[in-house]
Amino acid sequence: MAFSYLNNVSLEKARDEYIDKLKAEGLKPKSELINVSAACGRITAVPVYAKLCSPHYHACAMDGIAIMAHLSFGAGETTPVTLGVDDYTIVDTGDPLPDGCDAVIMIEDVIKNDDGSVKLYSPAAPWQHIRQIGEDICAGEMILPALKEITPAAIGSMIAGGCLEIEVISKPVIGIIPTGDEVVTPTASPKPGDILEFNSSIFSAMVEEWGGKAKVYPIVPDKPELLRQTLSDAIDSCDAVLLNAGSSAGRDDYSVKIISELAEVLYHGIAIKPGKPAILGYCGAKPVLGVPGYPVSGIIVIEQLLKPILDLMCGKVNDSDAYVTATLSRAIVSGLKYKEFVRVRMGSVDGKLIASPLNRGAGVVSSFMKADGIIEVAQGCEGILAGESVNVRLLRPKSELVNSIVIIGSHDPLLDELGNLLHLKNNNLFVSSSHVGSMGGIMALKRGEAHLGGCHLLNEADGSYNTAYIKRYLPDGGVRLVECVGRTQGIMVKSGNPLGISCFEDLFKGGLRYVNRQKGSGTRVLLDYLCKTNGFDPNMLYGYEREEFTHTAVAAQIAADSADAGFGIYSAAKMYGLDFIPVCVEQYDLIIPDYAWDNPMVQELISVLQSPEFKQRLNELGGYTVNAPGTVRERF
Amino acid sequence: MAFSYLNNVSLEKARDEYIDKLKAEGLKPKSELINVSAACGRITAVPVYAKLCSPHYHACAMDGIAIMAHLSFGAGETTPVTLGVDDYTIVDTGDPLPDGCDAVIMIEDVIKNDDGSVKLYSPAAPWQHIRQIGEDICAGEMILPALKEITPAAIGSMIAGGCLEIEVISKPVIGIIPTGDEVVTPTASPKPGDILEFNSSIFSAMVEEWGGKAKVYPIVPDKPELLRQTLSDAIDSCDAVLLNAGSSAGRDDYSVKIISELAEVLYHGIAIKPGKPAILGYCGAKPVLGVPGYPVSGIIVIEQLLKPILDLMCGKVNDSDAYVTATLSRAIVSGLKYKEFVRVRMGSVDGKLIASPLNRGAGVVSSFMKADGIIEVAQGCEGILAGESVNVRLLRPKSELVNSIVIIGSHDPLLDELGNLLHLKNNNLFVSSSHVGSMGGIMALKRGEAHLGGCHLLNEADGSYNTAYIKRYLPDGGVRLVECVGRTQGIMVKSGNPLGISCFEDLFKGGLRYVNRQKGSGTRVLLDYLCKTNGFDPNMLYGYEREEFTHTAVAAQIAADSADAGFGIYSAAKMYGLDFIPVCVEQYDLIIPDYAWDNPMVQELISVLQSPEFKQRLNELGGYTVNAPGTVRERF
User: Fold this and answer.
1) A565-579 residue pLDDT tens
2) What's the pTM value of the predicted model, to 2 decimals?
3) Chains A & B: contacts with CB separation below 8 Å
């Protein structure tokens, strides 16, 4: 259990030194000769000069007749000129100009006589209706300079200029080596402890998006001699190598040792989070990167350290990232020691761009999929308060953010279904939903940070739903309560109900492992209410403190036998094949503030709520009582 | 010579009706099952639901020991708790949580005793340092909705969620049929009349950029039975077909006839320029487009009529095109009958975006390559005046335009070389040059529309260059005259000098075919000056009215034997292997206005002017006298 020392150098310093080192070792773009018709999107290595003129001959530009222009001089409305059969040639567009001719007359302007001669009523200017040699491109001209991206029209120009093969920048080959005894090829039925190897799929896709070619090696177990052999092969046959996982200072950590045997290690450990245990190695001008195993860490390391090097190898201009200013909807607390990359969902509410931080776990790859942008919290910064202005690097076009309905509140799978149906109906619209519980949603609406929120809060006084909370927490009104669904809440237990739970009281039989929802969620309020009315102390429940954020997450714990029971909705139980003991039907509604109500996107969402497709999907999910979704129940 | 009737329906009406018709016939995206790791950039056909939780087991999130949390309760700085060897298990990050454990303690917080027991100085919270089942993704959750573009992170999420194959929108197969007796496969040495078939390369690249798959057929000669057979095969095996060329109403025009035999023709003829003779056909839900033969016309037709249909087939959101407002630098005259698409070069000068129209010939494919944007001149609009504000659809990122040095003035191939060297030195900088002659350049500088202009204007009074013109046309000064090169002007004649021309006077020997430069060009001024001082009437020159815009274009005419002589510079003659009779050395300089002088881009260009690389390239081109390029000769 020995720990190797990790650096804590700043990202900027490490990156600059790394790139300088690689350049000093001779890192630069390579080039190759390719067929020009396959060159779209590639980048020229050297200027391309035309070898042919285009047109390469004088071409008739009209259907008509070709003549010597001076024969037509003097022709007029009242003084037509007649040309005999030997004085003109019939031509089509694209025909070479016949010898001895220097003008083309459109067929519409030619009157043909019976004897084959033609009459002209106006003179032709020399070289009229002729595409002269080189009109488009002259031989010897530079068609494209070096380091220029090739467009479809440029392909046409190069072929027209007689350049059928051209020298372009080669796509750098990036070797990707997944490692680890516990890492397995993706399968639909992994064993506990098997880690599905999907990092190489993510990294390859990133590399290819950036213009490289990915070469993925088979998974290498944690055996030093095998790792050494594979890394050595990859360094030989690739332009850069990513050695994935094993780069933290743990028990099975061979990465830094093996990289340092075959390459120089500039830094091990960078002051970024996630991504700290990165290894920056190089073998001559070839980068050899040790990439952390957690997918989010790996993505950040590759984006921050490989991308700029790949751009250099590709001869690409650094894309200038798009940044926007947004309002942070929840506080971010950050460590002073690192520069932190926080993924956020975004949306535009009432003219204000809102950024909501996503799950920050380095293993949570879905956070990267859901992210609309990234906030970089500087090293030395303790965090950012809710409501503050933040600078966000966009991961999606701003137009998409502006077309996203921001839903913040209680979780229900029907929100995903709603978003899907909305996007199918209108491809320009998106849903961006954050699950923070019913109360969290009300607070977001109060701050003007969401278009709507899902809510199912029980008023313990009278058993009614939602209205009492709106009156208490949104006393100034300005919102509508829109009917959504009734949904059956109950106790989820393992299939076959091995503990024989038949009612709420049975949860307290003893020995039962409960899994709870987070504070502020309607389901937690319901549990507390039932405890109170039935005279139970919730702290008697083993697992009361164990919080999950969604119904499906609770169901997943029970299905995996890490808990025996939890409260949730029928559709989640059904999804996991769990038994379900119904306890009550609660009202799940949407709260829509006035500032969002007239927004056409919100109105379109309401029309989806009212659609038969949505009702059908609810029936398939099960456990919902559907009356008149989309109708306003009350205005406040 | 019969003409078939062409419609003149507006683009918008034709496009809407065409899309409605195709939709009514059942046009919609198709889908296919593919391996998820090959899915980057593809679009989901249906929502993707997770089949597995991720993690799919409780995973230790730290290297350390796993315990039952309650065994550590009560531990404190002064009250350590000791756990025997049976009470803990050593674990690594990623290991499954051992049975009977519900917390992980970091190895740093564990003190190991000699007997194998461990001492803890603080309690563990249940479920600490454990990635619980479903922390990232819960089985049953919607990972992606339908019609969503797949990102690298989404690939990782889907694999983590057990989705190894997914249903995505198929790439529509677009059949491209080049036709025409005169059309030949590209070659480096075509015969006169051979039209190089590069349209299919342009169209394929466009189709593939837009997410389709191009299927290019071999060139079909103008034989009705062959055309019919190929078109019929293509309709059977593709999702849409482009029949290229033959769509105007000329002699060899079989397209509309054959399309109407195999499909319905909605319109033949659209009120756009270029692109008028397009044919809008459909066979069931399959579009069958007759695309005009001129490349620029074809590009416009495909972009305006195929792209929106392809987007529908691909399930893609219509990209919202980027538009900017710019100042038009030269007037555009347009026909009332058509909507015209005018390609422009753009640049930002002194904070103002400038758009300069490019060559508008439908055959000039290089105009599309050079274009930074497109101005759509509405049907019914006669044109737009210079200096007016125009709305430009951008073809390049605005950031590139802002980083372009706008050069307007006299042509010399050294400007292309300069641009190439500048871009190699600083990949973020571009040159956007328009060749309008020396006087045109001075006028553009006067209007504040260029960063600099090339100029070689002879003062007939004293034989000096440039200064007199600056004083006359830029009387307010505010410019610097920057030395560039001396260049040898002379008479270019065919190799071997068959007409035996040895001096200026010989041009007037009679029977000689001259090719001139355009009015306002320095070379034309030089010719006129020589005529005057030598007592010749320039109108005696046969071909005096025949204007070309560049030195290379003049050389190309002579090389092609469509002229016997023309004035130009040595490097152009050398490029075409012409003989060259030197007449004089003229001073080619750059005029740089004060408003551009301090621009860092311009300063970087000047440092390239002064570089040894530039001098070396001038030597290779030949005919230049190089003294001290980049030094200021005079300030006005």
Assistant:
1) 999 999 899 989 999
2) 0.85
3) 338
